[in-house]
Amino acid sequence: MITSEFPVLQDSSNESGPGDTVSYSTLSVSELDDVGDTKGKRKRGRPARSTAASKKPRKSPVEKLGPLRGKKTNGVAQQNGEGDPTTLFEVVRLGKSAMQSVVDDWIESYKQDRDLALLDLINFFIQCSGCKGAVRIEMFRNMQNAEIIRKMTEEFDEDSGDYPLTMPGPQWKKFRYNFCEFIGVLIRQCQYSIIYDEYMMDTVISLLTGLSDSQVRAFRHTSTLAAMKLMTALVNVALNLSINQDNTQRQYDSERNKMAGKRANEKLELLLEKRKELQENQDEIENMMNSIFKGIFVHRYRDAIAEIRAICIEEIGVWMKMYSDAFLNDSYLKYVGWTLHDRQGEVRLKCLKALQNLYTNRELFPKLELFTNRFKDRIVSMTLDKEYDVAVEAIRLVTLILQGSEDALSNEDCENVYHLVYSAHRPVAVAAGDTFCVWSCRSSAEEALAKRRGRNSPNGNLVRMLVLFFLESELHEHAAYLVDSLWDSSQDLLKDWECMTELLLEEALQGEEVLGDRHESALIELMVCTIRQAAEAHPPVGRGTGKRVLTAKERKTQIDDKNKLTEHFIMALPMLLSKYQTDSEKVSNLLQVPQFFDLDVYSAGRMEKHLDSLLKQMRFVVEKHTDTDVLEACSRTYSILCSEEYTIMNRVDIARSQLIDELSDRFGHSVEDLLQEGDEADDDDIYNVLSSLKRLTAFHNAHDLTKWDLFGSCYRLLKMGIEQGSMPEQIAVQALQCSHYSILWQLVKVTEGSPSKDDLIALRRVVKSFLAVCQQCLSNVNTPVKEQAFMLLCDLLMIFSHQLTTGGREGLQPLVFNPDGALQNELLNFILDHVFIDQDDENQSMEGDEEDEANKIEALHKRRNLLAAFSKLIIYDIVDMPAAADIFKHYMKYYNDYGDIIKETLSKTRQTDKILCAKTLILSLQKLFNELVQDQGPNLDRTSSHVSGIKELARRFALTFGLDQIKTREAVATLHKDGIEFAFKYQNPKGPDFPPPNLAFLEVLCEFSSKLLRQDKKTVHSYLEKFMTEQMMERREDVWLPLIAYRNSLLTGGDDDRMSVTSANSSSKASSVRSKKGRPPLHKKRPEAEEGMEGSWMMRNDTLQTPGALQTPQLTSTVLRENPRQAADHVPDQDSSEAGSEPDYIHKRGLMEDDAEPIFEDVMMSSRGQLEDMNEEFEDTMVIDLPPSRNRRERAELRPDFFDSAAIIEDESVSCYMFWSCIYRNHFNCMLSASSEFYLFIFFCQGFGMQMF
């Protein structure tokens, strides 16, 4: 490190080798002093400082330093106009003065008294760290660096762990900027003289090196930031020196090459002297940078604090970009490569951004070739990083590499990135879209020279390439995601609808590749998605948080795009429909296009003839297709074209009415024929009814067709099917759906108008008759008919429930329907028979057809819809809550399929009625117990898996009650009451000496004992004793063990029950030294009156409140540990449990809550993560050797490859012992001393033992 003759701030703990000593040259250049004087003219005038009074305890740093100074300086003891003293720290913090003026004033004070000026600078760094102490002149002159830092550590503020660099708010964010700017300006203003005086830089670098090795986070963080910014400023100085050397060498060579008579020898001597001086300055700058790099960077880039590591990586990236000749080599790139494996996303993000700045410059690619080959796999894998910001930057870095070098990445690497265009996170998908555009544009670069339009334009090839990529990705339902990913980077391509329609409509030219059927379908799907994106101007569902408000520019672009696509497709769409009218997939996509039109263009542009063409093609489509998707697309398009706000409404309404009239007449005649023929109806009669009914049902969904009275015909079909039992299932399903739409449209009319009593009675009669038909259909032999009837029953019961009269609609009370017990039981039995079934039963119900994975998922989705429909009836109190018992009992068995639905149902029902919900839970357990008794008999094997399954279900139910026992007090007590009554409900027929048949149920009830309050346990126990005889209390046989276990669960734990979160203060004495200042009490005893509360829990009216969790005091002590390397600061990555799972219940408010990160911590990362090649004393660490200018020696050959895989920071989990060490340390807010390691080991063993149990 740098040494000086002045023996101050020298840290004896840092060793220096023989090559580290700097031999400064004597500088006596008068013009440099003149430069300093010129800059000093800008200093601000300040009044003389007043002498301080006698010293008092806890004086401010200004008062401490006041008597020591006899002249004004910029930093410590000056006064402003109002007489308030300000320090250099306060001047920088406020930022009211220009930073160059502040630095010039300090330089002037340094020229007058460099000791006092440096004292100002030292105190500036101390105060920027948040320390309230100040270095006095005696300390500065007589104490070593380590002693001063220890003294400042003792004077740290104990009240808060915050310091200026971590404080929130815009003021402190500005301070960070001012702090960095001050250091940069200081070096820039001192670069001609002061930094070479063998004093200032020696003192500053020595101070920062000592502070950066402190165990106090504030010192370490602040000094590292200062040192890295200081290094950046020195790199800039070194770069300027190199440029000046090259310029001087050119001048010297130019002068020397002149003829002897014209050569100026005096100028040559001056240039030689200047070159020598610049060379000496460069050598000194190299020594300074070596001291900072070896003394600070190589330690702090692997610091325990992620923010410190991020600072180091960010600045080394700046050095490599600023002075690539010196720093852009393997010796420095390896630090960035290693840190790509950092566990914190913040650090990985800084690595990627630093590399992006390098790969942006194409000239630097040759120097990055070895690094790219070594770390490209890691960079590509980071595109799947769990931190989305990191993944985005990794994709952008891959894009830059792809742009700069075609051979750097393999096809497999690129494909891994391309498929991220389907990511649900939009920034990741957009970045991947940019990469895809770079690849596609480069692939078709030879076509870009032709300025053609349409199918032969460069966009034509790009469209073909996009279609091919979409087909190869095999994600055909995600075209909208692909378009959205490319939207920001390729709008010109995606909005070239002229090119797309030409590819679809025009015949292929000779020698041109013809689009196949799959390619045409994919192109139409992509084209419709681009139209939707342009018209709606927001991402598809799943991308983003919702529709945001568009800016004026975006709104204008949206209007322009909508007009453009409308003008184009008004003419092109009828032709496309005409060409593909027989293809249902293509037609269903094309019929979505009019939904995004600006329909005013039809009338404003006098394009009614194109509207007639469109309506004609749509009529042809309706007549030729019976596919549901096509018919629903036509229905939606007719609905939009019939909007009353457009002038074309009348024209479209006439066409629609004519179409419905024709379909209705056809349907009526076909129904009459079918009813007349009955069982003798042939396939043609069935097809005529089904095809007409499908079309009418699709239109009835979006249009009010009540005036055509479709309900009557559909009801007749359903009644005939019920009576004769021979109705085809497709006709029955469509008739049910059409009748349902008819009822809803009638309800809309009633609610929107002022209905008469007759209207309500008529609608009630219709609804009642349809509900009866649906209930009868539940016993149909065809599964699709039963499922359709069940869904419609649930929907209509929900719609016509008691909620219909809310919101001032009391007049609709006659329309309210409440299901009777028979209907509720029938609905419940349907759920049990069709939802809670095994996979084998499902396969048999599918009539032996072999299902693939997609069919299984579709079947599961259908069953989930059935369960959700019935659960809604329970939640909204339409079906009695006890019916949920048969659903709750399947919670464990079908957790993977329906766990989320059952859990949400349980949560909602508890919000409705806690006590009734508890009764339902215990009823579900009783049902399971009865089923088990029926299967195995009264003598149950308590160790069997079936009994364990019931106990596990009870444990899960107990976890759902949460930690607030006050809120669930009555519910839990009622649950125990019902459980006890069930256990003793029947007497053993063999006599009183034998246990009751249901006694084993008490073992299940034990799972809920922990949810009882202490006084409630006593009451429940008293209630239990009412059912027990004296003989029962004395029995100890195995058959009586459930009773014994249940009694013990009520008797134990009553005396030590507490409502507050348990605190482990008994172990805190084994912790290392911590500050006792302001320590809150660990426990607050509950009032004695509460402990004595007795009385019946069945008649209690609770008003108790649960006290909140106690706040753990924050550790801010700055006492130094004797051996900071003994206990490495491990921060294990803990896998978060699934939200709502039982670990979520257990640990939501548990003992392991993370406290605020202490200010006092170990300075290094985990010992397992330390670099093996850095465990030495850094003798082999490279020395910063700036590249020679043209007059210097040739650059030494490249150093060996430093990319040692053994030195990479491994991203691996820590040991179980260190995991408990971290939790123990975080919980008790202390640092482990050597004596407490034994207690930690005992704590670990106990925790492990409990886990094994």
From TrEMBL:
* Compositionally biased spans, kind Polar residues: 10-29
Molecular-function annotations in GO = chromatin binding
What are the Low complexity biased-composition ranges? 1060-1073
Answer yes or no on keyword Transmembrane: no
UniProt cross-references to SUPFAM superfamilies, sorted A to Z: ARM repeat
Give residue spans, biased composition: Basic residues: 1074-1086
**GO CC annotations?**
chromatin; chromosome, centromeric region; cohesin complex; nucleus
Stretches assigned to coiled coil: 261-291
The SCD domain is annotated at 297-382
Subcellular location as annotated = Nucleus; Chromosome; Chromosome, Centromere
Q: Keywords in UniProt for this one?
A: Cell cycle, Cell division, Chromosome, Chromosome partition, Coiled coil, Nucleus
Q: State the source organism's domain of life.
A: Eukaryota
User: Its GO biological process terms?
Assistant: cell division; chromosome segregation; sister chromatid cohesion
Signal sequence annotation: none
Presence of keyword Flavoprotein: no
Q: Where is the composition biased (Basic and acidic residues)?
A: 1124-1133
Region (Disordered): which ranges? 1-84, 1054-1096, 1124-1146
Q: Name one Pfam family in it.
A: SCD
Record function comment:
Component of cohesin complex, a complex required for the cohesion of sister chromatids after DNA replication. The cohesin complex apparently forms a large proteinaceous ring within which sister chromatids can be trapped. At anaphase, the complex is cleaved and dissociates from chromatin, allowing sister chromatids to segregate.
Family stated for the protein in its record: Belongs to the SCC3 family.
Subunit record text:
Part of the cohesin complex which is composed of a heterodimer between a SMC1 protein (SMC1A or SMC1B) and SMC3, which are attached via their hinge domain, and RAD21 which link them at their heads, and one STAG protein.
Q: What is this protein called?
A: Cohesin subunit SA
